[in-house]
Amino acid sequence: CKLSLATLDEARKTAAVPAYSRADLSAGIVHFGVGNFHRAHQAVYLDDLFNTGADHDFAIIGAGVLPSDAVMREKLAAQDFLTTVVEQDNNRTGARVTGPMIDILTVGDTKAIIDTLADPKIRIVSMTITEGGYFIDASGSFNPQHPAIAEDGRHPSSPKTVFGLIVAGLKARRDKGLQPFTVMSCDNIPHNGKVTKNAVVGLAALSDPAFANWIGENVAFPNSMVDRITPATGERERNIARDDFGIEDNWPVFCEEFKQWVMEDNFPAGRPALEKAGVQFVKDVAPYEHMKIRILNGGHAAIAYPAALLDIHFVHEAMEHPLIRAFLAKLENEEIIPVIPPVPDTNLADYFALIERRFLNPKIGDTIPRLAQDGSNRQPKFILPSTADRLARGEDIVGLSLVSALWCRYFQGTSDSGKEIAFNDASAERLHAAAIKAKDDPMAFLVFDDIFGEVAESELFRKRFAHALKTLWQDGTVKTLKLYLDDKL
Ligand code: NAD
To answer: How many CB atoms are closer than 10 A to CB 392?
Structure first.
């Protein structure tokens, strides 16, 4: 059946459907960036909570600022904002239709978005706008000179960025004497709450420093760690939803069974009782996010490039390749995990074993191109901080430099077998040009201060990187990985 509120009874034959009715729900959250991850994670937790009968006044209104958000709005509006979520484990595949989203605002309708943000019913503004969406440089600082931010700073009442809209929404609330909403980032960024606060306060300061101070003192930005592997949706996913579950969904979401959400309990305007749906509320989320970003996201960022260079398409296939699997294990055990501070109630070796199993899951169809995209934002957040930590301790970085060298080799643009690589990265042009030069002059790739920061100034890193890159060019990916595994790189 074609998914809609009217066909839920039919969908019930093959999928779990909401136990609540749409009429029971009212808005409490505005979410920017209605992509796949939001619908596999936050929306699923809320769906679980709403199924218990609780907190029906925390339904989601979607919002966005990009043309792709307008496309998503059209696709989801045609199915009453319902989403089919297919959860796949090694042993189980199940589909559920989730319904906590009740609307998506028209992209570009600034007035409607600000009016909604200023509605007293809205108590949380959340976002998944990707690592690149926060206007931060390699040091993690907010960049107020970015043209989009400077533009919103000059025209605060007609904002175009998510942060400009949030500033305008907060101002409208303050003018009405309303309590501010809580701003909840759900992106994979270290200290995501703090980074979001810096962006909102930093942008507000461009036009109204006193109001920026007010935001700094009065608005909560809880940090969180979010986790659930959620590949992009394509024809394959639409076909499985239709053929296996009988549901025609314009944009279904596929994900693994595992999910985790650890968050600081800092919601002065109130929040849904998400702990009833499995969210862990903790005093300090830093150890959890540190562990997840370095081990899981760092792991993804490490295997993406050797796999791409060996023409491997799926993540589980990369993990089935003995050299790539062993490369990941050695890198994590010898270089990444030893510089991770202890995490409450967590054994890091067990955590990594779980991650290996999750990466090996053959069902979810996560792809190497997805992991390889956006490296210019991901390497500085997921890999290079581990490199910097080890250098600061005077420890070696053979494996981590190899990751950087593999990334550089990838950006030359062809795999070891000579197949062309399609990049998906905002910085692709400059990285590609530098990677070509780096074949003869490896240092040409380390000139990007916004990516490599201080790491590029380390003699040891420069030496290791140059040697790894030279070996990759001379001997290829397979031989280089073998040398690394034999401690001969
Ligand atoms: P997606 O491509 O499906 O959606 C991305 C969303 O971000 C879209 O709505 C897009 O319009 C918006 N966006 C992108 N750049 C933006 C910008 N500059 N300003 C405003 N909005 C912008 O991707 P996804 O799978 O939903 O992942 C989004 C983010 O969620 C990731 O970058 C990551 O931080 C987090 N996350 C994803 C996963 C996963 O497995 N997919 C897991 C954990 C966390």
So the answer is: 11
Atom of ligand 1 nearest to the CA of 69: 11
For residue 377, how far is its CA from the centre of ligand 1 (angstroms)? 12
Query: How would you list the strands of the sheet with 253-256, edge to edge?
Result: 93-98, 83-88, 253-256
Cβ burial, residue 410 (10 Å; 0-12/13-18/19+):
buried
3-state secondary structure at position 157: coil
DSSP 8-state class, residue 136: B
Residue 478: burial class (beta carbons within 10 Å; 0-12, 13-18, 19+): middle
CB of 68 sitting under 6 A from ligand 1: yes
ipTM: 0.99
Task: Tell me the per-residue pLDDT of 207-250, one tens digit each, with 9 for 90 and over.
Answer: 999 999 999 999 999 999 999 999 999 999 999 999 999 999 99
123 closest CA partner among 159, 173, 160: 173
Residue labelled with tokens 């679980």: 48
Q: 443 CA distance to ligand 1 centroid (A)? A: 32
Model confidence at 136, pLDDT cuts 50, 70, 90, reads: confident
Mutate to test the pocket of ligand 1, among 31, 129, 367 (most ligand atoms within 8 A of CB): 129
Where do runs of H (alpha helix) occur along 246-335? 286-291, 298-309, 315-320, 322-331
